[in-house]
Fold each of these.
Amino acid sequence: MTNQDKIVVDRFHDLYYNGLEGTGPIFAQTYWFNTPCLKCPLDLWIYQEIIAEIRPKLIIETGTHLGGSALFLAHMLDILGYGEVITIDIIENATRPIHPKINYVKGSSVDSVLIDSLLRHRSEETRLVILDSDHTKHHVAQELELFAPYVSVGSYIIVEDTNINGHPIYPSFGEGPFEAVEEFLSQNKNFIIDKTREKFLMTFNPYGYLKRIR
């Protein structure tokens, strides 16, 4: 990517997060089937490509919020004809969409007892993990350590919002997902960054598509 290309991509980030004058943040006006889904649509397209390729039986999402992304993931599994979404959040919300493939779980995504209770009895299966809860470095690092053993070889942990703390937006956020990924990869050689998942250039998850290779 040339410096001019980077300027264009960074400007797109700024516009998507902050909006044009008088419009408000565009990401906060993004919906999936009338449910708020605070994602970049280009990332969602990548998610469906990954799901179609690896065909997961289980998708684990941390950070449910209003349930839009969980519904999107459930609809992708509907196309496959099987699978389940386990989505974890510390807050319950009765307005979230109901879908037979979505299992809403209240609790912390770094509660090892909770995660073990959800996953230890499951049989061998393809699993995809998407991290989108507390974006502080410490929290994401804990999630990565906790969930990495549950990810299937050839599948992914997707670390969302690695673009914050100046990568390129919200430069004053402080260490967050990007820095957690750096630390995780320095200590874990079972995962690599799959840059091919950033082919659309605009992604909320730069360096955040982590593929398990062994």
Note: The chain has one domain: 31-212.
Amino acid sequence: MTRSAEHAKGSTTPEGTGDEVEVRIRGLMMDPVTNMPMIVLKDLTGDGVLPIWVGIFEANAIALEIEKSATPRPMTHDLLRNVLRAFDATVTRVVINDLKDDTFFAVIWLDRDGDVMTMDSRPSDALALAMRADCPIYVSRTVMDNARMNQKGRDVNSDELRRWLEGLGDDDMGRYKM
């Protein structure tokens, strides 16, 4: 955990800067090519999309929250939210702030009585917690731009995948099935 004043160079402030893009979870679906679950993030101010491939367990945690399905016992992200509440800490935002070697990184911003802290996180965990905490989700503009470039360099189908994701309507975002 890091205090905001000590946060690494190049990351964002709790108030945000023009270097971030606010996104929402557009959906969770299976990648038609790899058959792996992916979260589709949609830029709120434009038509950009960012797919992030996640593991099956993380996808299930997000799917449960998307569908507002109750579980008999708290799932890991529910437990984390409950622990934070017990310590009077609030998740104020999550930021997907880095992309290295095709791996995304995220930071969870917490506030406890005015004391702002950050926690390093996998994006899937940060997103699952953000949904439970009902807080905004951001992506660094650099990450958004680099992800587009990385997708273009992968193979011929990556441009098609990007166009397909950008053109998805509400009815196209099928429910995630295990």
Note: The mean pLDDT is 82.
Amino acid sequence: MTFAFIRHGQTDWNRDDKLQGSSDIPLNATGREQAHEAARILADGTWQAVVSSPLLRARETAEIIARDLGLELGPSYTELVERDYGPLEGSPSSETMARWPNRQYPGAETIHSVVSRGLAGLARIAADYPDRDVVIVCHGTIIRYTLAALAGRPVEGIRNGSISTFRLDGDRWEVLTVNGAPLLPPTPEELDAWAGAAPVVDPRGIAG
């Protein structure tokens, strides 16, 4: 069983450097083209289903990919919505990240909660689509930290329209690619950074 995480295409808020989170912002024209491009890349695979977060930008990206690949669009999963940034949504993203580099934003959902939701969503998808290869369209923060929990190491930021793949082997998940590139072994510095910031979530139980 192989899964592909795809971050939704660009929105006007992405373009304008606004912190988006749970705000339900639609794709723009660039975002729709990014969805078509993702489908072109996925066309060489053996994908059997497309599912998504229920937010508009993810759902429309999934609709485009499913249509381009000739696949039926599957359900949306509430567990896959983006991190809720609370009162900071709509604020400049770069300024917010510079002010709180550890991403512990006041009034926002915790990273632990985000990862727990991401893993719960994967468990539901694995149960709904046993032994099938599934495309999952959702959001940058939930993809990044869920993949990090599966890999046991930090991963880089997730770009709009990018494809990151991972597979289930027995009860173990293996991250294969991030942003379309192979996941390389971590450096000692990355592991040290991860040790101090890793969400305390055990991914081993999500296979069922």
Note: The mean pLDDT is 91.
